[in-house]
Amino acid sequence: MTRRAAPEPPEPLPAPTVDSHTHLDACGCETAADVTAAMDRAAAVNVTRAVTVADDLPSARWAVRAAYWDARVAAAVALHPTRTAAVTDEEFAEIERLAADPRVVAVGETGLDYYWDYSPPEAQQASFRWHIDLAKRLGKPLMIHDREAHDDVLRILREEGPPDTVVFHCFSGDAAMARECTDAGYVLSFAGPVTFKNSHALREAAALVPADQILVETDAPFLTPHPHRGRANEPYCLPWTVRGLAALRGVSDERLAAEAERNAERVFRLGELPSVPSPDTLSAANARSA
Fold first, then answer.
1. Count of CB atoms within 10 A of residue 169's CB?
2. What's the CATH code of the domain at 243?
3. Residues 159-181: pLDDT tens digits?
């Protein structure tokens, strides 16, 4: 089915926040100008920074470049579980080199996906274990993709021993899983599905996560929040998720946005990122060289 056009921007949030998981390349960004334009659209609604996440090796190379094109962007790199059917030692080595870059803030997304039949479970689990070890060796957060694989994801984390920081991207479990994860110190990130009225178990889970263990994300261009489900997603769409999650948790939009921003700052150490030229500086330099 063809994805419908992107919605008009929402009202700006009353406080800045961070899109903790997006795919700017899959949103159609190719060049530095594309990334700057997407982040300008996000900034206009007070989504001031974003983590752009890779799912394969070409995407990982692009994400690292994008993190140097715009100071508002950081990267996460890994091999998505559905991309693990046949991975060479050379590909793992390049992921490790890219993940060590100082503007890469997490190893991800990695994990298990039993919904799609693209990679056998054995290959996914071996790759997941390798990424867990990589995150521990680099001292960076582990960003987990978990689709219909809750038990095995939690089991492997226990068996391997988790890194200091674990983020469940687009958390999809129920209240019992949320309690298990938060008791273990894991951080849960919520995307558009938490705004869907039929996501009863997920909404129950989101209501009980401690304020210092919650993040917000778009997972753009996927999972556009209500009331625009099925349309194209982008970081500027995050306010709908923030507002839906805030209402669910009985707090103000401002408080939820600020909590998510503080948590993203801490989890991804955004304040420690090496500086890059600002978009205005880059635009001026491009104009001079034209």
1. 27
2. 3.20.20.140
3. 999 999 999 999 999 999 999 99
- Whether residue 147 lies inside any domain: the answer is yes
**Strand segments (E) across the chain:** 17-22, 47-53, 73-77, 104-113, 142-147, 166-168, 187-190, 214-216
Q: Is residue 42 included in any domain, yes or no?
A: yes
Q: pLDDT tens digits, residue range 6-32?
A: 899 999 999 999 999 999 999 999 999
Quick one: which of 89, 106, 77, 71 has its CA closest to 277? Answer: 71
DSSP code of 215? E
Closest CA to 261 of 223, 222, 217, 229: 217
Q: Are 55 and 49 in contact (CB under 8 A)?
A: no
* Full residue range of the structural domain in which residue 205 is found: 17-279
Quote the number of domains for the chain. 1
| Phi, psi values for residue 113, rounded to 5° | -135, 105
The Cα–Cα gap between 279 and 218 comes to 22
Interatomic CA distance for residues 214 and 216, integer angstroms: 7
Cα 206 versus chain centre, distance = 17
- Cβ neighbours of residue 28 closer than 8 Å, sequence gap 6 or more: 34, 221
Q: What is the pLDDT of residues 256-280, one digit of tens each?
A: 999 999 999 999 999 999 998 765 6
- Domain-located, residue 199: yes
- 179 vs 134: CA distance, rounded Å: 26
Q: CA–CA distance from 142 to each of 92, 146, 261 (Å)?
A: 16, 12, 18
> Does residue 286 lie in a domain region?
no
d(CA 74, CA 110): 17
